[in-house]
UniProtKB/TrEMBL annotation:
It holds the Pfam family Amidohydro_1. The keyword Electron transport does not apply. The keyword Hydrolase applies. It comes from Salegentibacter mishustinae. This is Amidohydrolase-related domain-containing protein.
Length: 463
């Protein structure tokens, strides 16, 4: 039967000739048929962790209609003809939100080596010059496929190989084709001269283009700022804000950068539209500045620790009123894109620092990767929680694996036990992108092949 359906799709032209299959058009023959082209479903028998205090957490049902969550309740009358997903007691959480990732570096997985010349910055600088806009798109799709596998439905991509607007548009195209919502920061590039001005001509060109095409409606453009003390920072941020762009900046990442957040505050630059990345060297006074201005901080603990920036200030930030979020940063350092494991690392680090088994609540951690991430990106009225009226960005973890079957403390299970392989379903904007452990929207084998081939070519060019 599955073969017949696949033959029908092939004959009807739904399966493309390129091998990279269009979003939502494919099913694996290993799982039961589900109509992935639609965006209305009823999810039943699921333990709901809503991230919305007004909704609460309970065993119940979620009705998705036309890509939106229309009802969340213990019992819902089943609409006639709707597709039903039986969670069989599994845990349903909002789609995860990654608030900082350099998607283009995904082809360089674990390429940060053991010497200064092989280190992250010099290594990525060498490879960055070999990328074309087509390579940027391939790398972004390669990263996004892993993100979906890991339960991520929204990504904030900081593009710091922005050699022209076409290099940044590649991320928009990849996200649109893969079915995710997102945010793309137009940054600089590795060998850009200090005297070169920020490419606002390219920013405006790209902004006009994406705003003229509805396929980019759920992907926003932002400014990837240079460092905190560069000469034109105040002018650049004003120009960005005049264009309605949110701003992302790496600041106070390590001890050598101490005081950068204070510098931003003293220039009256910090506000709720600013996403501060890392902040490992943040001081108590700077925590007050960030609280006062409602800026957000995104921690990327695996990359921060791997590169030697020190430990994230999780305890100090946890005790503040700052909107804290998390990100992968780069798989050139982290090796993988398992965002739930990032939360587990933060939990263990916070409890170890406090010498207290009960110091940090796993629900608070999950908020960093859901509703707080949405707030950071200015989309908390659209996503980040299982709330009626919001977009259906959902992740289902089925409790039927050796590592994820017993136990009934749902938040602890999600943070401490879950692996990407336990993620049974990923839904973004009401479309099922992963089902029964398989990606539905892309030929993974073909994507892996293309990524490996291009990396091999670049590696030969590097010598």
């Amino acid at each position: 039967m599955a073969k017949d359906r696949r033959e029908f799709l092939k004959n009807s032209g739904v399966l493309g000739l390129s091998g990279l299959i269009g979003p939502f058009s494919v099913f694996s023959e290993d799982h039961d048929f589900l109509n992935f082209q639609q965006n209305s479903y009823l999810i039943k028998n699921t333990e709901i962790l809503s991230m919305d205090d007004s909704v609460g957490d309970f065993l119940g049902m979620v009705l998705v209609e036309n890509g939106k969550i229309s009802e969340v309740s213990k019992n819902i009358e089943i609409p006639q003809g709707i597709e039903i997903i039986d969670a069989e007691g599994g845990i349903l959480i909002p789609g995860l939100i990654d608030c900082h990732w350099h998607l283009w570096t995904s082809l360089l997985r674990s390429m940060s080596g053991n010497s200064l010349q092989e280190g992250y910055f010099k290594m990525t600088a060498r490879y960055s010059e070999l990328y074309s806009p087509e390579d940027m798109k391939l790398a972004a799709k390669y990263a996004i496929a892993e993100a979906i596998h890991s339960g991520i439905t929204c990504i904030s991509d900081y593009n710091h190989n922005a050699r022209s607007w076409k290099y940044v548009k590649a991320s928009f195209d990849a996200m649109a084709e893969m079915g995710l919502r997102g945010h793309v920061s137009y940054g600089t590039y590795r060998n850009m001269k200090e005297s070169d001005s920020t490419d606002f001509r390219g920013i405006k060109t790209l902004k006009e283009l994406i705003e003229s095409d509805s396929k980019y409606n759920d992907i926003k453009l932002g400014l990837g700022s240079r460092y905190a003390n560069y000469q034109d920072i105040m002018l650049d941020w004003k120009r960005a804000r005049d264009l309605g762009l949110r701003i992302t900046i790496h600041a106070s990442s390590n001890e050598s950068q101490k005081g950068q957040i204070a510098s931003l505050y003293n220039k009256n630059l910090l506000a709720e539209d600013v996403n501060i990345i890392h902040g490992n060297a943040i001081t108590p006074r700077e925590i007050e500045f960030v609280e006062k201005t409602a800026a957000s901080i995104t921690m990327t603990p695996y990359s921060e620790m791997r590169i030697g920036y020190g430990l994230p200030k999780i305890n100090q930030l946890n005790e503040s009123q700052i909107n804290c979020c998390v990100g992968i940063d780069t798989t050139a350092l982290t090796g993988n894109a398992h965002l739930l494991d990032t939360l587990k690392l933060l939990q263990n680090l916070a409890n170890a620092n406090a010498k207290n088994e009960f110091y940090i609540n796993p629900k608070k951690l999950l908020k960093m990767a859901t509703i707080q991430g949405a707030k950071n990106l200015g989309i908390d009225n659209e996503t980040g929680s299982i709330t009626p009226g919001k977009t259906a960005d959902l992740v289902l973890l089925k409790k039927d694996d050796l590592n994820f079957s017993t136990g009934n403390k749902a938040y602890h299970l999600v943070i401490e036990a879950a692996l990407p392989s336990n993620i049974n379903m990923v839904m973004a904007k009401g479309k099922v992108l992963k089902y029964k452990g398989k990606l539905t929207g892309i030929n993974s084998d073909e994507l892996i092949k293309k990524a490996k081939e291009r990396f091999s070519e670049m590696n030969q060019e590097i010598g």
